[in-house]
Amino acid sequence: MRHSTSPRETRETRETPPGRHIAFDHLHNFRDLGGYRSADGRTVAWSTLYRADSLAKLGDGDEDRERFRRLGIRTVIDLRYPWEIEAKGRVPETHPFRYENLSIEHRPYDQAEIDPDIDPWRYLADRFGEVTEDGAGEIRQVIEVIADTEGPVVFHCASGKDRTGLIAALVLTLLEVDDEQILADFALTERATDRLIADWHRAHPGRVLRWPGYGRAPATVMRLVLADLAARYGSVPGYLTDRVGVSPTTVQALRDRLLTAETP
Fold first, then answer.
1. 153 - beta bridge partners?
2. pLDDT over 90 at 61, yes or no
C-alpha cells in the first residue's frame, strides 16, 4: 500500500560551503567530502576525498577531462558491477592513477521499475541493507584503499547516490562525524536529481520511468539505514568492526590521513 513517505515529498535545500560541489559539464554529482567536523574537533581535509557519479562520463568532453586531471586524483574506486563498466565504460586515462573496481552491490535491481505504490524510502533502505551484508568484504577493501593510499581519492558508482552514498556515510562514521552531517551529505544528491533523470531519459528513449522517486536521495533513506545497522549490530561502528572487519589500524590510518586541525 502507499506509504506517507512519498517520493513526492519536498526536497530540502541546504547551504553548502564553496568548493563542496565540483562543476563538470557531464558529471552531475561530484563532491568534495572535506569540511565535515569530527567529534574530536578536527575536520575532514579538503581536496583529499571525493565522491562522484560515473566517471565514464568524463569521456564525453575534453574540458571535463582537464578539470578532472587538475584535481590530481591518485586513486579511483569504481563501485559498479563489472557488467556496468563493460556496458558504459570506465574513467578515461587522463593521467597516471590507481584504478580499483570493487563492486559492493551483489543483487542488481532496476530503480526505474520500482512499484510506485510501495513505501519508497523503506524499499531503498532495505536494498542498502542487502549491500551492507552481501558486500561487507568489498566495503572493507574500499575503506582500506582510502586509508592506505597517498594523494586524493575519488569513489563513484553510476549516479553517485546509493552505493557511493553508503560508502561516504560509513567513512564519515569512522571519522566520528555525527549523524546530522552524514545525513546532510547524503541528501545533497537531491541537487543533481533533475539532471540524473534527464540522463535516464536520454539513455532509455523507449521506456517509461515508472517510479517518481528516481534519482532522489532524501535524508530519510540514510536515517533508516543507520538505524537498521545500529539495531542489528549495536551501532554503526559496531557493524564496521564486527561484520565488515575494519581493523583498529585501518581506522587510525583513515583518521590520520583524512582529519586535519585546520578550520573548515
1. 49, 75
2. no
Report long-range pairs for 177-180 (Cβ below 8 Å, ≥24 apart).
Answer: 177/36, 177/37, 177/38, 177/39, 177/44, 178/37, 178/39, 179/223, 179/226
Which helix (H) or strand (E) segment is 43 a member of? strand 43-44
Domains of the chain: 31-260 (3.90.190.10)
Average pLDDT, the chain: 93
In 54-191, which residue ranges form alpha helices assigned H by DSSP?
Answer: 62-70, 82-88, 120-134, 136-148, 163-174, 179-187
Q: Model confidence over 113-134: pLDDT tens digits?
A: 999 999 999 999 999 999 999 9
Among residues 257, 254, 258, 260, the alpha carbon closest in space to that of 143 is found at 254
pLDDT tens track for 73-86: 999 999 999 999 99
Angle CA 112–117–123, to nearest 5 = 65
Contact 57, 78 (CB under 8 A): no
